[in-house]
């Protein structure tokens, strides 16, 4: 079918006419011929009936009949080629078929035939055009009459639809003629006819013609024509041009309209004044508003096109706008200051200045200042300011405005404009500005202070009255919107809000209430809530918090109380109901909660808490909570009267809500170590934990457990014994406790999946050792299971070891997890797991992390013999052979067990022990690490015995200052020389010297005579016995101890225990092993007498409280309350200050911890408790102990900061990988040398020592 008959031509002509009739509306609505062509080309994309048109159906069938056989033939060829591998992929096949079809002879013939027949068909249609012209003229005449009699409505921006009925495409000569006929000097009838013809032409053709400059000039002048109908037609032409032309053309229309308005406002005809008000029903005012509205509509739309056009187009629009809005009359002009400017009209139509991007600002600042002075004067006179925001701004039927109302609308417009302007840097650069009636210039700070003052001097309503108001124009609500946006923009907040002047302005009502001075404020409750809202947002950022704590210039003005002091004092007064002006207010609990939240933003940080501690805010909150709890407990449960029941129910609901607010405030003290210590002192720990787990359990059920703050609180709590007890008790209190809910979810992910999940395909086999779905649960368990928590949850608990486990039996506590996932010592346990390998690897990974904390390792090993269980499993995991011992089977479980066995049976730093990798080698050796099923550990995992340094003693060293100076010098130049006997002698003499000085002795100790009895290992607890074995094994590896060293270490530990009992309030064994005493024993090369003497003398010094943890266990030297809480000073003092310094010195590391939901205090406590054993080599451990003894206890804090600085890049990398806590607990400190960071520690000492030592000395009880 390569040719067409005459019948085909007639059929095609009919079908094409039908198609064009169907899309007539789309074509006639096009602004130009090019646009009409674009519409037809993309008709398939825009017309849902495209494939139903007969013309389209005919073409599709014709193409199919002509090219179809070619495509089928090529498809068969490609199918056979694809089977042979020559062509691959669906896309490649389609491209190949398309190319072959277009290159075929049939395709070329088809295209030529179509081209020829369509030319004939289109020519026939064009020939019929003359026949239709007379009909078109009649339609145009009819349209003209309708337009002349039509009424121009207010919707001018949408009123161009009547012009889109038909187009008369015009030549340049015709347009030039139209321009001449539109000259204002022409007769009225000529101009009207020319305008009518102009409106029928495409706007884009007119705007792009050579005649447009003349047309533009005449149209601009004609807009002021006294004939309203004529000027409105021009306005409608402008509206049509705006909606149907590109930006580079419409800016011509905009500048024309702006110029007309500018000339009109400057003319002598305009005489509207503010004082006279404005009647919008007046025809002249109505016409003017229509023109301004059209201008404003374009202003709102234009910015969306700016990015696609050169900057010069935008500049022309902006300049014409500025020229209009900043009108200046000539000196002899009769206009008065009462002049109703273009901005007033713009404000009427766009009160919140949505259009604004760049505008002159002096008038706006002046308007805000004028309104503020008006409000302030009215309030001071105790009169009521008329609140226009509640009158006409919401009255859609109003047709007239008074002078004050116009001023108010102008003020709101200016306020919104300034708020928008100050967000941007370029807008801020426009300040300061000079006003006519002010001597001093107005700065950004002056404007923001003015905003703050408007909050409490302008009319406002209680918050309850504004809830239903969706578009409130009160100054208070507008200013709040602006300030809230400022708070969210970091750069803007720093420039506009973080200044003393702004903070003082916000605190003015608070300061007045504190001092008891008279207040002139319209609505005190609303003002206080607004102030608290902004201050809380400021305190949420680091820079804002710094301004509240220390002021704009940091810590220069120490005598002047900063905002933080004012806020905490005011909050305490609120909690004690000491504000008379607020007594009896229904919003009192809300106001209290708002200011508590501001303080909470401060005491959640270490530096904020440090400043608020002297005020005892935690005690005030706890006291208010106890009173509220007492009242809610007293509410009767049975009431017969219905009204009384409703009243009591509402009171109870309010009381419970207030109680939860106070508990939440107390709970947030737990975000810092010292805050947790303060919470213990309130006695509300158990209730706070109950409240937290109730909240978090609900979040877990809805998969919303993403709050970093709550995860940090849990991690902090798990670090202390009392909090760990509370965690355990909370689990027992609730039927669905948090830990139980978490373990239930974990088990579902590991084993059986969720009951309500319909399985339609097998679950994918996990690629990672711990599947991503279980990662969060794993990290949470790592956070929670610190040694104090493990001790409280597992101490003296036996493994269930049941003979049978049901598949539906789900673990509900930690002992069940150990039983089911770690200690798999029976067939029943193995067969009870659906995913045995994946679940057991999860358990082994968890065990590996737990055993990094040596006290936890000792507990698990003594109670459950985990090492023996793993060795037995390895022994069973061998091939069976008849010729001799089998070979270990290399699989995921045996590799994991091998790693754990090496870790728990070897002590040593990064260069002293070699941990096997937990992955297979890609090379020839699948797994090059030796496996074992009995102890000792193969020598492959033990590094070479470190070579002893040659010791040479220099000239005798002086004491105290000279000694410290010489120590630092040697540490920096020859650090390896400070070890072994030299170090032992140095610290022995140094401590002996300090212990004899009354000024250096911090603790008093009684006399103690060592027990002479031959102490055996059996006299110690099982935990201590295992600790002794590990210590002696490590000491022998280091060549520091002899064969009989075990008895000597037992002697030291037993006598230390007896010695410390004399200084304890209650006799109770220390929960963990004494790693510091063991370290000193090694330093003294196993000399038990020297070790014991040193420890007795050392116990008198302040540094002993922080290096030797068992020194202050239940000690009489601590306050009774501190002993009861069981929180060690290392946690609430050293670890607390580590977190505080970390934020100042290493902000990226601090943020990384926060994002991970992990706390620096937890890992620091672990490092310090075990004296960095397994994290540093022995020489570095000695240097750590030495610098703390010689240079002071604060060096313990600097040491931890130095470690974090060393690990910074690794910390950031593992935060991104979401395994930070696992990395910090498992990995040794590779490459860290104390001597390398001594200069850095000294720089920290210069800054922080006075504060740190002062706080460290406060740990002692007053009577000791």
From TrEMBL:
Residues 173-832 form the BROMI middle region domain. Gene3D superfamilies: Ypt/Rab-GAP domain of gyp1p, domain 3. InterPro entries: ARM-type_fold (IPR016024), BROMI_C (IPR055392), BROMI_M (IPR032735), BROMI_N (IPR055391), PHAF1/BROMI (IPR039156), Rab-GAP_TBC_sf (IPR035969). It is found in: Cell projection, Cilium; Cytoplasm. Keywords: Cell projection, Cilium, Cytoplasm, Developmental protein. Required for high-level Shh responses in the developing neural tube. Together with CDK20, controls the structure of the primary cilium by coordinating assembly of the ciliary membrane and axoneme, allowing GLI2 to be properly activated in response to Shh signaling. PANTHER family: PROTEIN BROAD-MINDED (PTHR13465:SF3), UPF0183 PROTEIN (PTHR13465). This is Protein broad-minded. It comes from Lamprotornis superbus.
């Amino acid at each position: 079918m390569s040719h067409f008959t005459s019948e085909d031509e007639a059929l095609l002509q009919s079908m094409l006419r039908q198609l064009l009739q169907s899309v007539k509306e789309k074509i006639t609505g096009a602004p130009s011929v090019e646009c009409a062509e674009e519409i037809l080309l993309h008709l398939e994309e825009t017309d849902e009936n495209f494939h139903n048109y007969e013309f389209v159906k005919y073409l599709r069938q014709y193409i199919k009949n002509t090219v179809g056989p070619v495509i089928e033939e090529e498809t068969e060829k490609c199918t056979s080629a694809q089977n042979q591998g020559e062509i691959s992929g669906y896309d490649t096949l389609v491209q190949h078929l398309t190319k072959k079809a277009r290159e075929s002879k049939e395709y070329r013939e088809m295209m030529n035939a179509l081209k020829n027949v369509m030319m004939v068909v289109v020519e026939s249609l064009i020939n019929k055009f003359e026949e239709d012209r007379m009909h078109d003229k009649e339609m145009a005449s009819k349209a003209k009459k309708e337009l002349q009699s039509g009424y121009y409505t207010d919707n001018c921006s949408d009123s161009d639809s009547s012009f889109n009925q038909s187009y008369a495409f015009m030549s340049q000569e015709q347009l030039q003629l139209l321009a001449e006929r539109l000259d204002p000097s022409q007769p009225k009838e000529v101009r009207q006819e020319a305008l009518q013809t102009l409106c029928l032409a495409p706007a884009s053709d007119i705007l792009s013609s050579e005649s447009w400059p003349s047309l533009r000039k005449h149209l601009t002048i004609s807009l002021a024509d006294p004939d309203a109908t004529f000027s409105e037609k021009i306005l409608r032409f402008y509206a049509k041009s705006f909606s149907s032309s590109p930006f580079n053309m419409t800016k011509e229309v905009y500048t024309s309209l702006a110029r007309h308005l500018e000339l009109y406002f400057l003319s002598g005809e305009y005489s509207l004044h503010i004082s006279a008000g404005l009647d919008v029903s007046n025809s002249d005012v109505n016409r003017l508003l229509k023109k301004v509205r059209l201008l404003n509509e374009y202003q709102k739309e234009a910015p969306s096109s700016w990015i696609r056009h050169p900057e010069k187009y935008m500049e022309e629009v902006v300049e014409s706008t500025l020229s209009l809005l900043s009108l200046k009359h000539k000196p002899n002009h009769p206009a008065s200051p009462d002049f109703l400017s273009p901005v007033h009209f713009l404000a009427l139509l766009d009160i919140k200045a949505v259009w604004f991007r760049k505008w002159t600002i002096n008038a706006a600042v002046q308007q805000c200042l004028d309104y503020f002075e008006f409000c302030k004067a009215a309030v001071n006179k105790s009169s009521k300011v008329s609140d226009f925001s509640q009158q006409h701004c919401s009255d859609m039927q109003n047709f007239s405005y008074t002078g004050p109302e116009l001023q108010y609308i102008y003020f709101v417009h200016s306020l919104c404009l300034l708020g928008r302007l100050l967000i941007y840097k370029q807008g801020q650069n426009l300040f300061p500005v000079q006003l006519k009636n002010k001597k001093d210039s107005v700065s950004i700070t002056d404007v923001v202070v003015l905003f703050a003052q408007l909050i409490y001097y302008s009319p406002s309503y209680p918050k309850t009255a504004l809830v239903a108001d969706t578009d409130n124009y009160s100054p208070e609500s507008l200013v709040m919107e602006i300030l809230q946006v400022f708070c969210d923009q970091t750069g803007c907040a720093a420039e506009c809000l973080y200044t003393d002047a702004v903070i003082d302005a916000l605190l003015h009502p608070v300061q007045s209430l504190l001092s008891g001075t008279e207040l002139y404020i319209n609505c005190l409750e609303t003002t206080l809530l607004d102030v608290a809202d902004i201050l809380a947002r400021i305190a949420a950022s680091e820079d804002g918090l710094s301004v509240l704590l220390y002021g704009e210039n940091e810590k220069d003005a120490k005598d002047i109380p900063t905002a933080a002091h004012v806020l905490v004092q005011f909050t305490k007064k609120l909690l004690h109901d000491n504000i008379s002006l607020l007594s009896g207010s229904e919003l009192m609990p809300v106001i209290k909660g708002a200011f508590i939240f501001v303080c909470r933003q401060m005491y959640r940080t270490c530096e904020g808490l440090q400043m608020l501690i002297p005020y005892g805010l935690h005690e005030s909150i706890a006291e208010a909570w106890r009173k509220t709890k007492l009242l809610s407990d007293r509410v009767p449960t049975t009431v017969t009267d219905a009204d009384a029941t409703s009243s009591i129910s509402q009171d109870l609901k309010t009381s419970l809500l207030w109680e939860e607010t106070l508990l939440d405030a107390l709970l947030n003290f737990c975000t810092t170590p010292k805050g947790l210590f303060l919470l213990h002192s309130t006695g509300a720990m158990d209730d706070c934990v109950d409240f937290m787990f109730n909240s978090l359990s609900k979040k877990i059920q809805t998969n919303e457990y993403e709050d970093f703050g709550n995860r940090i609180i849990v991690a902090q709590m798990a670090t202390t014994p009392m909090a760990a007890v509370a965690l355990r008790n909370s689990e027992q209190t609730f039927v669905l406790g948090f830990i139980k809910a978490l373990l239930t979810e974990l088990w579902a992910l590991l084993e059986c999946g969720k009951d309500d999940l319909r399985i339609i395909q097998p679950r994918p086999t996990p690629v990672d050792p711990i599947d991503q779905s279980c990662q969060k649960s794993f990290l949470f368990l790592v956070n929670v299971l610190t040694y104090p928590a493990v001790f409280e949850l597992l101490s003296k608990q036996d493994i269930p070891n049941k003979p049978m486990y049901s598949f539906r039996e789900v673990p509900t506590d930690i002992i069940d997890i150990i039983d089911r996932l770690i200690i798999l010592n029976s067939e029943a346990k193995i067969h009870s797991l659906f995913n045995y390998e994946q679940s057991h690897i999860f358990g082994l990974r968890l065990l590996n992390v737990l055993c990094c904390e040596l006290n936890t390792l000792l507990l698990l090993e003594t109670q459950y013999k985990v090492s023996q269980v793993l060795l037995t499993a390895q022994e069973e995991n061998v091939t069976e052979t008849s010729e001799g011992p089998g070979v270990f089977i290399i699989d995921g479980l045996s590799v994991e067990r091998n790693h754990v066995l090496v870790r728990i049976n070897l002590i040593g730093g990064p260069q002293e022990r070699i941990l096997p990798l937990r992955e297979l080698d890609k090379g020839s050796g699948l797994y090059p690490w030796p496996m074992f099923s009995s102890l000792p550990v193969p020598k492959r995992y033990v590094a070479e015995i470190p070579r002893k340094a040659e010791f040479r003693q220099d000239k005798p060293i002086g004491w105290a200052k000279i000694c410290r100076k010489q120590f630092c010098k040697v540490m920096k130049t020859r650090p390896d020389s400070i070890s072994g006997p030299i170090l032992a002698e140095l610290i022995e003499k140094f401590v002996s010297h300090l212990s004899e000085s009354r000024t250096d002795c911090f603790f008093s100790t009684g006399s103690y005579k060592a027990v002479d009895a031959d102490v055996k290992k059996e006299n110690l607890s099982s935990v201590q016995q295992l600790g002794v074995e590990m210590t002696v094994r490590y000491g022998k590896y280091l060549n520091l101890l002899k064969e009989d060293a075990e008895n000597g270490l037992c002697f030291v530990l037993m006598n230390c225990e007896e010695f410390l009992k004399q200084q304890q309030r209650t006799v109770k064994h220390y929960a963990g092993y004494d790693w510091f005493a063991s370290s000193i024993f090694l330093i003294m090369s196993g000399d038990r007498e020297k070790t014991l003497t040193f420890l007795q003398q050392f116990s008198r010094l302040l540094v002993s409280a922080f290096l030797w943890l068992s020194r202050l266990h239940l000690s009489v030297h601590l306050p009774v309350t501190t002993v009861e809480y069981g929180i060690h000073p290392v946690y609430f003092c050293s670890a607390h200050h580590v977190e505080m310094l970390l934020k100042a010195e290493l902000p990226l590391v601090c943020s990384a911890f926060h994002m991970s939901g992990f706390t620096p205090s937890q890992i620091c406590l672990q490092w310090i408790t075990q004296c960095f054993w397994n994290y540093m080599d022995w020489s570095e451990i000695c240097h750590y102990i030495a610098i703390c003894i010689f240079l002071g206890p604060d060096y313990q804090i600097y040491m931890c900061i130095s470690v974090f600085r060393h690990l910074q890049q690794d910390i950031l990398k593992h935060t991104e990988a979401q395994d930070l806590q696992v990395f910090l607990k498992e990995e040794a400190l590779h490459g860290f040398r104390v001597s390398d960071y001594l200069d850095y520690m000294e720089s920290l000492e210069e800054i922080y020592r006075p504060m740190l030592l002062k706080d460290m000395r406060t740990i002692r009880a007053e009577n000791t």
